[in-house]
Predict the structure of Branched-chain amino acid ABC transporter permease.
Amino acid sequence: MAFSPNSYYWKGLRDGAPFVLVAGPFGMLFGVLATEAGLDLTETMVLTATVFAGAAQLTALQLLQENAPIFIILASALAVNLRMAMYSASLTPYLGGAPLWQRAFAAYLIVDQSYACSIVRFETEPDLSISQRMRYYLGSVTLVTLCWYSFTFVGALLGAQIPKSWALDFALPIAFLAMAMPMLRTPAHVAAALVSVIVALLGAGLPYNLGLMLAGLAGMMTGARVEVQLRKKGTWT
């Protein structure tokens, strides 16, 4: 792998660097909440390393505290992470020709930040080789990954010593807004986002975060339906 300042790894590293401003507080927040939920340092870090999906980890943690059934916990975490399957499908035309071990590594590292950076770069420069794409992809997620691990560790280590006035939970909604808004490029995207927001708000009072699961399903169904209708009319772009 080339590490020159002009390599695609370094381009990805630079493009992904701003996201550490979100990954740091988000990781620290998870570490603190995990400690408050009764997980020790080792359990917190094992959960972070094996799942590597902040929103799903927070969802599972919240439901664990509510003593929700294990099926609900797994289903909710899966629902939150369904977007990763869509990310993966979207990236397959660009990275699908890479060796199996590289694809497996990339699958583990797929997060909102790496996808947001990579899909824009790949669509902007469609003539990149698979090697260049993979280098860019890995570069875009390097700092986020290191930041997530390290700040989760700090949060779990310090636990309740971190004052609530820091309001670390600001990082999650800001991160998703910053990444989602520029990606609403078609009517199908907009319809899916709008329906999911409405259903999530209407279902906010449902137990075990079921409203979130329903919102995700409703959004995906709406987006797919709008896309089909637009394709039939010949206006889909």
Notes: Residues 188 and 223 are 5 Å apart (CA to CA). The two ends are 36 Å apart (CA to CA).
